[in-house]
Design brief:
Elements lengths: L5 E7 L4 H11 L5 E8 L5 H8 L4 E3 L8 H14 L4 E4 L16 E5 L15 H9 L4 E8 L9 E8 L6 H24 L3 E4 L2 E4 L4
Parallel strand pairs: 1-2, 1-4, 2-3, 4-5
Antiparallel strand pairs: 5-6, 6-7, 8-9
Helix pairs in contact: 1-5, 4-5
Length: 211
Amino acid sequence: MNKKPIQLAVLASGGGSTLQNLLDEIQAERFDARVAVVIGSRAGILALQRAADAKVMSFVVDPKDSATVGEFSRKVFELCDDAGADLVCLAGWLSLLEIPEKYQGRVMNIHPALLPSPFGGQGMYGRRVHEAVIAHGCKVSGCTVHLVDETYDSGPIVVQKCCEIREEDTPATLAARVGGLERLAYPEAIRLFAEGRLKVEGRRVRVSPEA
């Protein structure tokens, strides 16, 4: 572990359950990190209240207030800069970003399906993903933590965890099982990043052994 906790910027567009998981894991000292800033893509979302409850600085950057994706992205990453973020974590963030050069390889996202698959991309989030997975007749599902590029859900994969799909599953029951995996996978991926154990080679993210 680094002696100084890794500084996280968490970007959210909704309820903030992933943000809360990270805050809880940090509070329990299961990994050495600090949420330095929370950025919401709209006002009034529960994620911002979670940030306030945890006494974490937060801001709103609404994409509707920017003329282009580039302008919107600059506003977001300027706040990340100001907070001294080492890693930007998308946590239910629904807006496309242009990633500045200095943040290449330093932006992560978690998706509630195994990527690459038909269950990623624009508009595929939350319950919609689990409905589509079940309708497709898949036998397994899971979650994917990946590095973010400038296309939805297409960056190099860091961590994946999977679970079976049961005959009696509904989108709600599958979401609950996948959610349990997400709560493990994201902290694991952040920990690997903080330990300097991730090396990107094209599409592949190699994980070096523990020191």
